[in-house]
Recover the amino acids of this structure.
């Protein structure tokens, strides 16, 4: 039986719920709801659940360790369920993509993302797949100054951003299901060309 692990990255706590850095949590909640997958248990410092897509078992996890320690939780699930890196999909925010852009990447470095850096460290590989959710970079004023990145990612979506994020969620759900049913390369070909 093939198992897949779908990970949403974010920070626990009500104060972080609608912040840009919690895009992965929000996306995973939406996908689970759309697919009828449960996400209501707690184990190994994560909120977790499971479901099925055809004959494939799907495991879901939202690490509750805070972003920069996400790998601790994910590694426990990966090791216990013996999940191959190419069967792991991580949903996370990305500063270098325009807001609302969705991109599937088969492997690669952390790109400055502390959650991905932790996963690479604890999984010992960069071969897991990522669903990157563009949040853009902080806007700059005429003097070229903008909000510091760490403050930007931990600040709440604007109303317009949240509306656009919600509008993109069906594409995120489609991407997750394509990844599981058809594989990363097919998913990339179908999803990455679509612009917000």
């Amino acid at each position: 039986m093939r198992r897949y692990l779908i990970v949403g990255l974010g920070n626990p706590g009500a104060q972080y719920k609608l912040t840009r850095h919690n895009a992965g949590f929000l996306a995973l909640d939406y996908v689970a709801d759309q697919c009828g997958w449960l996400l209501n248990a707690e184990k190994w410092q994560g909120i977790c659940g499971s479901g099925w897509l055809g004959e494939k078992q799907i495991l879901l996890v939202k690490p509750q360790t805070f972003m920069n320690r996400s790998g601790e939780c994910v590694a426990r699930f990966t090791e216990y369920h013996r999940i191959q890196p190419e069967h792991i999909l991580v949903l996370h925010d990305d500063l270098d993509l325009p807001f609302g852009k969705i991109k599937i990447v088969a492997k690669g470095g952390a790109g400055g993302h502390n959650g991905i850096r932790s996963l690479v460290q604890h999984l010992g590989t960069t071969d897991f797949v990522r669903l990157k959710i563009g949040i853009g970079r902080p806007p700059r004023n005429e003097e070229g100054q903008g909000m510091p990145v760490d403050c930007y990612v931990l600040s709440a979506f604007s109303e317009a951003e949240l509306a656009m994020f919600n509008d993109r969620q069906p594409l995120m759900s489609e991407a997750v299901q394509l990844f599981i049913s058809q594989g990363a390369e097919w998913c990339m070909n179908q999803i990455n060309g679509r612009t917000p």
